[in-house]
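Support case: user asked for a sample of complex input and structure output to validate their parser. Sending the pair below.
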Amino acid sequence: MFSLGWQRSARVAYAARVLMVVALFGSDFEADAQTTFQMFGHLEAVAEQDGGENYSGFSIGEHDFFVTSQLTDRISFLSEMVINPQSGEGGFKTSLERVRLAFNYSGNHYLIVGKMHTPVNYWNDRFHHGRYLFPTIDRPQSFSHLIPIHTLGFRLQGQNLGDLRFGYDIVVGNGLSSNDQGDDSWQKSVTTACHVKPWEGSRIGVSYYRDVIFDNMVSSHGGHGGAHRHDVYDGDVNVNLLSASAGYENARWEMLYEYSISMQSYPDSAGAASSSSYSTYLYLGLRLKNQADVVYGLVDWLEIPEEDLHLMPQQLAKFGLGWRHEFAGQIHTKTQVERYTGFRDDLMMPPADKWELKLQLAYVF
Amino acid sequence: MLAMSMSGWSQSLPPAAVIVGNNIGFEQLTEAQVRRCLRGEVSRWTGGSDLSVTVVLPSTRLPECEATAQFLVSSPRPASLQKYWLGLVFEGRAKAPIFGQSQQDVLDAVLDKPGALGIVYGISVPEEYRIEVVRE
């Protein structure tokens, strides 16, 4: 027998079908629905010197249950449920990171509804919770500060159009102040993005995102962490984010460049100046001749000015060197040395002074 | 021919490969068109049957997968082909392909699924399912 998805055994595929039938309580289940299940996960170990203090530890990373199903010839389903360890008293948190239905109305054009990643840059559109697919151990720092990670709404998408493989995405959805239960406002976030793939393994794109953050409060669609300044300003924040990405991969080289500038204004302030924060990220990898090992370097830079009333003013620079070994199966090891520092001490957050050695096992099955 | 532009970055179809299709609406495809379809770049058989494209590939455990990986992702590593497809599906930009555990499984999957396109090696293929490939 042949298997579905990533060479799952026929028995698992059969069990999945039975589960689907049970879930549908005997409704008209299409016997040949093409359904796949994957689990992405990772484990980590870290040794750290932060200022004068030393730390070390082991951790369970995000575990991501990823499901796709072809419901009809034109309609498909995709979901991503993540179980995440919590800090503090511990325990785990479960979240639905993506739930979307896509309607393929013509050719390579789609209408998508549900919760999705905002396609503002290459990383957020491609990797998000799939550590196995990450080229490095961590996301760029901009994900904790500038990048609007999710949107719940609808999306028009086109891809691989013409010789340049032109693609577009137009997304209208709940804004950064909303949550997954709804949005109490007419105001919606808007994302427009386009990209081309002029060479095999390449993708070059730009995007524009706009939103209004009510009362300077972000909710579940904002960055995963990062500090905000609700204490100094509790009015609305107009956000205009411009991003550009360039990715390239061939048998020898891997490259990814991300740039974002977030221009914010504060209409409810007593004349506070608008501010511009930016982040830039560069990854370069060299695949060795054995094809299974990649050595790489990264530079990750974030700058949030003092006049920013939404994000915590800081300048953060991260430099890293790493080695990724890809086993023949679906498991990678990554080893990374990182230096966190800052070159400005005139901002609210003092410059970082940290070294880290990290090991990660990332897998999917 | 397919209504959309179908130029592909050049890679030659392995000489032993046979392309099989089920009700795709085309009896002949160019090498570049086959490549674009099997790389998940085409969602529907526009200009043909208008069915959605289902890709069927040999399992990465089969020795023929090396030639398929070279053709589709310019790498002799089957793991690269699997990672390529995993990324595409995770991104939500393509329907998951079917991987056959044997050449017969690949052929059976194509014969079972209207709109399917697959690549097989060293196996007898019913003439009505064979897609003529214009090699470039």
